Structure formats: C-alpha cells, structure tokens
Amino acid sequence: MSAKITYVVGAVVLVFYFVLAGSRGVWLIQAGTPVTVALGVAVLILPLIGVWFLWKNTRFVTRANRLAAELDAEGGLPVDELVRTPGGRIDRASADAVFARRRAETEDAPDDWRCWFRLAVAYRDARDTPRARKAMQRAIALHDGTPVRA
Questions:
Q1: What is the Cα 39 distance to its own chain's centre?
Q2: pLDDT digits (tens, 9 = 90+) for 114-150
Q3: What stretches pass through the bilayer (predicted)?
Q4: Cβ distance 119 to 108 under 8 Å?
C-alpha cells in the first residue's frame, strides 16, 4: 500500500510541475517576441513528454497489477523462495537458480502469460529491470490477446 501512495504522491507532484511549466511556456509564447515564443514552445514540449511518460507508466503498472490480482486469485503467484542476506537483500545465486527455473517454464509454454509474469518477477529479483519490464509487457500482451512484439 505504501508503494501505491508513493506512486500517487509522485504523480501528483509531477502533474503540478507539468501545469506550472506549461503555464510558464504559455506566458513566454504570449510575450510575442521570436525568442520567447521559441523558448515557450520548448518549455511546453517537456511537460507533454512528461505527461506521455507518466501515462504510459501508470497504464503499465495498472495492467501489471491486474494480472497479479488475477494470478493471485488462481493461486499462481510465484512463492518467495529466495535466500536473503542478513540485510534483507536477495542472494544472487538464489535469484539465478529461481530465474533458470522460470526461464525453462517459459520456454516450455511460450504462449502462457502466467509463465511470462513469473519470469518478469524472476528478472526483477535478479536485478535485471529492463528485461523484467519487457517480460511483463509480453505477459500483458498475451493476456489481452494483442500482438506480441519480438
């Protein structure tokens, strides 16, 4: 729950920043000189990129959470069997062993979104965030029946 609250607070702060930057961009454009118009347009582009990025991430998180809830209802969420250090960090060898099993499971059933979801969790546990995100995107696409990018 604290992660959701943190995400919402961060999103609200970003939206506030986007509104503030956007108003400054409009103010610069209204000044009317060529330099201020060019700067105003440049200032407006940054909040637009930020809004797009925030939208994509929020959509991704919402869809991944929906899959997690569905998998939890089926009793298919991966069990935390990882060995941890005294400080609470995941032991690398333990994460690699679980990852190898999840990868083999996914290779055996490449069209099952559940396998891809569990593989995404294993990637995250192995600290490979870019691959975790791609695996989760594939799980979402398979679940929703949309074309899967290679």
A1: 31
A2: 999 999 999 998 888 999 999 999 999 999 988 877 6
A3: 7-29, 35-55
A4: no
